[in-house]
Amino acid sequence: MPQTLSVIKAGVGGFVGRSGTHPEVIEAAREALALAVQSGLLTDAQAHACGDDLFLVMAHGHGEDHEGVHRTAWETFEACTEVARRLHLYGAGQDVLTDAFAGSVRGTGIGSAELVLTERPSEPVVVFMADKTAVGAFNLPLVRTFADPFTTPGLVMAEPLHQGFAFEVHDLKHHRKVMFTTPEETYDLLAFVGATSQYAVKRIVSRATGEVAAVASTDRVADLAGRYAGNDDPTAIVRCHGAFPTVGEVLEPYTLPQLVVGGLRASHHGPWMPVGQEGAGTSRSDGPPRVVALGFQLAEGRLVGPRDLFADAAFEGARRQANEVADYLRRHGPFEPHRLPLEEMEHSTVPSVAARMASRWSDL
Ligand code: MG
Questions:
Q1: Residue 224 has pLDDT above 80, yes or no
Q2: Nearest CA to 220 among 179, 266, 253, 256?
Q3: How far is CA 8 from the centre of its chain?
Q4: N vs C: which end of the chain shows fewer Cβ within 10 Å?
Q5: Ligand 1 center to residue 333 CA distance, Å?
Q6: Which residues of 204-234 are buried (b: 16+ CB within 10 A; e: fewer)?
Q7: Rounded distance from Cα 232 to ligand 1 centre (Å)
Q8: Is 46 exposed, middle or buried (0-12, 13-18, 19+ CB in 10 A)?
Q9: Residue 280 CA to ligand 1 centre (angstroms)
């Protein structure tokens, strides 16, 4: 029977400020998920935090976009929001933008990545959790893992990978999608997904087996709120080994702390730092942006794990470099390229300042 792995995430309230998640919030999520497992709706589930965001990792047999699974996530976030309100946590309930559940979390500002798979005798998967960054942040690491043979030698030397992968790319501005096949369309793919503010890799499919290899959340909070509403803080799920890249090939791109949108007031660029769960709180300038990688073995719908993959000392170099880049960028204060370009500041105070100053300008 096909299994589904659903990772659904929201910011339900930060502790302290936007820097982290209170243990009672995570505990409330675990209790709510345990009931859904007991009821038989889910085969297994775990709740984890990255910075001020809560990620529900749920295994079940119901496929994508299942109303009961999404309702469980919704009600879990509601229960957690109650805890957040009781503790006066920061921005309690900020991502729960509509009042009533309407059959799916999609289109509500809550992020989701769902992957249907037929479990292999050994099924290693990695769940990525991001904080203080935006949809599109996974473009670079996913392209490097699935289309760059210098990152993934398996593309050269492993038969199923050698046939390449198909990338489903979403245009976030015009709400449309397109497929690219690699290796032959790699340059076309890069022409789009290098522009992370508009294009996001949604799904990657093995051309050898037709199976989905990876999926990322592409839900943008600001589009729905039409105002400043924090970062998207996306998630991604990647299957490993066999017809897919190895765990090592999946993690390797994160040795580069790439510059991403996020951090301070969701209006700046910052280096994306790979961290273990213990290091996922952001104290300095609401950053730098973070990413945590949780490794699981699926066993007949059970989540065996996680292993905290970025806790590995091999990522210390990336963390050191991220801190150096943060030092350098932070000194630019309110100047680009630390600050985002003007067209991405539409949800900040910049448009109202511009409106106030409009009559003061005169032609040259
Ligand atoms: Mg966050």
A1: no
A2: 266
A3: 10
A4: C
A5: 21
A6: bbbbbeebbbbbbbbbbbbbbeeeebbbbbb
A7: 7
A8: buried
A9: 11
In a domain? residue 361: no
**Spacing, Cα 235 to ligand 1 middle (Å):** 11
Compute, in angstroms, the gap from residue 209 CA to the centroid of ligand 1.
36
110 CA to middle of ligand 1, Å?
12
CA of 11 to the centre of ligand 1 (A): 6
How many residues make up the chain in this entry? 364
Question: Which of the four pLDDT bands, split at 50, 70 and 90, describes residue 98?
Answer: low
Same domain, yes or no: 88 and 168: no
Do the Cβ atoms of 13 and 93 come closer than 8 Å?
A: yes
Q: What percentage of the chain has pLDDT greater than the value 90?
A: 86
Residue 72 lies in a domain: yes
Structural domains in the chain (count): 2
Domain end marker among 118, 140, 165:
118
For residue 183, report the distance from its CA to the centre of ligand 1, in Å. 34
Q: Which range marks the domain in which residue 51 is found?
A: 1-118
Q: How far is the CA of 329 from the centre of ligand 1 (A)?
A: 20
Same domain, 71 and 171: no
Is 351 contained in some domain?
Answer: no
Asked if residue 149 and residue 113 are part of one domain, the reply reads no
Q: pTM of the prediction?
A: 0.96
Report CA(159)–ligand 1 centroid distance (Å). Answer: 39
Q: Is the pLDDT of residue 228 over 60?
A: no
